[in-house]
Every structure is written in structure tokens, then in C-alpha cells.
Amino acid sequence: MAGSLRDELETKLTRFEELERLMHDPEVLADPARLASLLREHGTLSKVALRYRRLKELNAQIQEAEALARGDDPELRELAELELPTLRAERDACWEDLLEMTTGGQDAQRNRCVLEIRAGTGGEEAALFARDLFNMYRRYAESRGWKWELMDAHPSDLGGFKEVIVGIEGEGVFRRLQYESGVHRVQRVPETEAHGRIHTSAATVAVLPEPEDIEIELRPEDYREDVFHAGGPGGQHVNKTASAIRLTHLATGIVVTIQDERSQHKNRAKALRVLKARLYELRRREEEQKRAQERRSKIGTGDRSERIRTYNFPENRVTDHRIGLTLYQLDQILEGKLDPLIEALLDFEKQAHREAMGIGGRR
User: Fold this and answer.
1) Which of 21, 60, 216, 347 is most buried, taking the most CB atoms under 10 A from its CB?
2) pLDDT tens across the length of the chain (363 residues)
């Protein structure tokens, strides 16, 4: 097993066992909010942690059986030789399960994420493309039974999105969506184009794992809060109620503005969720920089400035530039049928893991 993956699994198991102890702590039991947060984190880690714990048990049993098979006692030697194939088969199956679970990085098992889509170069056409991406991901979320929550939106004049932020919750959310982070480029003839010329525009997507409250400590003194009147097209309460919230994190300068709700309280709660997700993402990227070489050997850098995919409407073509995959299924993909792209990206990373492991990817 590769060192980085083994270290990651050890960290998850250590945290899982710590959570098991904390959930029996009288102080934690007396704090319902903290207990609920710990239970959510425990549930997120349980599949991987329990499978890795079992893998370690099997490795220990195999070592013991191999020692007996080399021993002087004929009866014990025979029993060990009979037992070893079964133990090794279960160990290999256990490893395959872990490979499947952990492909996608340290946050693969997180069931909540924040999806941010912003129009890039291309003016109004880019905003319309941002809307297309928004609808594509919404349909995909619906097809998987995920919970979809609009957190904030800034519409454009023609019905596109300058920016839109969504919270998504469900099994496998971050594992499947994380590869969407980056620059998405579109090539098509705009409806307003009289001469039928193909225009190129872009939108930027960011998929941020949403941390548990206890993972990101955020005190009121860590950020500045500004309350103001909501603005922009739509919204009957525009400029009538001071409900919009802007949070500025003092240490990093990260700014989050939410004005989607009429309620100041709801906007504040959403803004805090987005701010925590962005702070967690910042910390995650700082850690990943330490492993830059390893990451470059997988699927690009994941940097939002990196062009990851091109959507060509005239040819009904989608090309993912990271793995060189081209599909002539653009119409289906925009309807939310993203699995062919996502499965290909997951398989690519899984194969990279196998090659790093050597000898079939098993250890």
C-alpha cells in the first residue's frame, strides 16, 4: 500500500476511534449540538475506518498464519496452509473496497459540499453558460437523490447567472463532483449572433467540501459582518429590508456575500457555511501544495484557473482535457447524465493508485 494512502487511512482510523471515545464522554453527551456534529463526522468516516480496521486485522492474521506455516508443528502447519488462501482472498477484497472508497482523496467520503459557479470571459454568453452548468448539476443531483439548496444567486439581464452558490448533500457528493472544479469552456453560436459565428466563452466552477463545525473554528472576532440592503434584478424586497450579509474573514481576506433570503438570520447562517467551506478549502490546498508532485501525477492540479473541459455545441461534443476523453453526448450531459465523465475520471485516478502500488495495486 502506498505510503500516502496508508497515512491517510491511518489518520481516518485514528480520528474515527477518537470520535468513538468522545461520543461516550459525559461532557459531550450533555451538549446535543456537539454530539450531533460528532455523530455526523463519525458516520462519514465509518465505512472507510471500519474497512481499514478489518484490513489491519487480516494482515495480522495472515502474518500469524504464515509464521505457523513455517513452523515445526505439522498439524498447525496444515491448518495454517488451509486458512491462508481464505485470509488472503478476504484481504484482497478488503483492499479493493478501500481503493474504491478512497479514490477521490482525503475528503472522498464527505456527504456535503458547496458548489460555486461564476461566469467568466464572454459577457452575457458566459452568464448563460453558467446557467446551463447550474441546470446540468441540478439535474444530476436530482438523478442521484441528493438534496439541493440554492444559497445565493446573482442573475444576469438575459436570465443567466453572474454567480450562483448551491449547497448539495447526499451520499458520494464530494467524491463525484470534486473533479468539476476548474474552467469550463463553451463553443457555440449565441442566439444574438446574426452571422452564425461560433463564440467561445467560459465559466468557473468550484466544488468545496463542507467541513463539520468542529473542524473549522470560527469565532465572531475572526470576521467582520456587514448588513446591507439586497440588490440586483428580481426579488421584491430589494432595497426594502436590510437582510443581506457580507462576512469578511480578517486573517485571509476571504469575503462571502449572501442576499438570497429575506431573513437576515438565514443569510448569516448560509454565509457562515460558505465561509467555513472556503476556509477549509484554503487549508486543504495549503496541505496539498506539500504533495504537489504526487498530485500532478494524478488528474491535474484541480486549480480553478485550469481549463478542464470544453463543450462544443455544433459538434455535440464534450472533451475533458485532463484525461483526453471526448464524448459526442453533449445534449445528454447537459441533461444531467454526467456519469460517463465522472466514472472515467474516478477510474483514471484509481488506475494511478494501482500503478503506484505495483503488482496489481495490492499490498
Assistant:
1) 216
2) 445 677 778 888 999 999 999 999 999 899 988 888 888 889 888 988 999 999 999 999 999 999 999 988 888 989 999 999 999 999 989 888 888 777 777 777 788 899 999 999 888 999 999 999 999 999 999 999 999 999 989 999 889 999 999 999 998 899 899 999 999 999 998 876 666 788 899 999 999 988 776 567 788 899 999 998 776 544 444 445 678 999 999 999 999 999 887 888 889 999 999 999 999 888 877 766 654 544 344 444 445 557 899 999 999 999 999 999 999 999 999 999 999 999 999 988 888 776 765 434 444
| CA–CA gap between residue 226 and residue 248 (Å, rounded) | 8
- Nearest Cα residue to 342 out of 312, 299, 288: 299
3-state secondary structure 288-337: HHCCHHHHHCCCCCCCCCCEEEEEECCCCEEEECCCCEEECCHHHHHCCC
CA gap 49, 43 in Å, rounded: 10
Instruction: Count CB-CB contacts under 10 A for residue 320.
Output: 20
Tell how many helices (H) and how many strands (E) occur in the chain. Answer: 10, 11
Could you write out the DSSP letters of every residue in 230-245? --SSS-TTTTTS--EE
pTM for this entry:
0.69
